[in-house]
Description:
359 residues; 4-stranded antiparallel β-sheet
Amino acid sequence: MRVGRAGELELxxxxxxxxxxxxxxRVGYPFRRKGWGPLLVPKQASFEGFLAGTGPAGxxxxxxxxxxxxxxxxxxxxxxxxxxxxxxxxxxxxxxxxIVFESxxxxxxxxxxxxxxxxxxxxRQTGQTWRVSESSHGQEGxxxxxxxxxxxxxAYIVFASRASNLVVDDTNGVADLFLHELLTGxxxxxxxxxxxxxxxxxxxxxxxxxxxxxxIVFESDASNISAADVNGVRDVxxxxxxxxxxxxxxxxxxxxxxDGASGAPMVSEDGRYIVFESLAADLVAEDNNGESDVFVRxxxxxxxxxxxxxxxxxxxxxxxxxxRLTPDGRLVVFESKATNLTEDPVSNFSDIFIRSLAE
Length: 359
């Protein structure tokens, strides 16, 4: 089904009647996530103690974070002083309260002296903005942080960073992935090589889902995350917080990684389904279109399905990219330049398509 046309996709009303800025020292409204548009995440259990102001205090670092005593009730939509440099790549929690974004601005929180890109969270209810790309002790990163995603309840933020001082013993000189817990202020690294060693390549574009950010998917150039990585190109992985294990997702039935680069992953809330794009031609049988395709990996059954196909199973005749997955994993939406995925008249531009896993 093509949805990139007027009248075929009805969107619900948002929280506010007007549009406001959130890349401010106090408050705002979402903007475009580079290449994707604003990212909405599904709802799950909230961290009520923190939201109600009864959680642990001590979260303020250089005046940048919320504390139980420092929060206040106020309307969702207000205006404030804008950041003094560019802000971009936003994602928003399920209830619309918390917005995570990256910014070059140095006036969003006090004590921002690193002259590089940081990751911030803005609370639309209290009007507070604070930096999350810091160590557990509040030390600002010594290099850029970016590619942030937020959990459904806003309790966790995962992001990529080239900083070497967010955790101890970060000596690999590449972009790693870090998970920041809003309530405690703890920052931990979640991209690890096999055996707990540091990765030897960039890890990027994370997405998280499940209770307490149980599942984190990402793409990586590293060659030492999994023994299954034999292709020398970017692959997709999933990290489980409960087991501490990282497994390859963009793999053949044999378990080895595909023969082309894979990326742009997103995981369902239960961790079962992972959607991603790939140039690999051997993830499924008879992939012979020579284009980037959209795939869904069933982590329970260990099977991979191509979803950038028409109703008869014919592969797209042009590239399909930028997939998104519903929280239950039932529907996939993606962008494609293919002209044979529907019977509708073709266009000279990319279209947006939606497909059910059951089809």
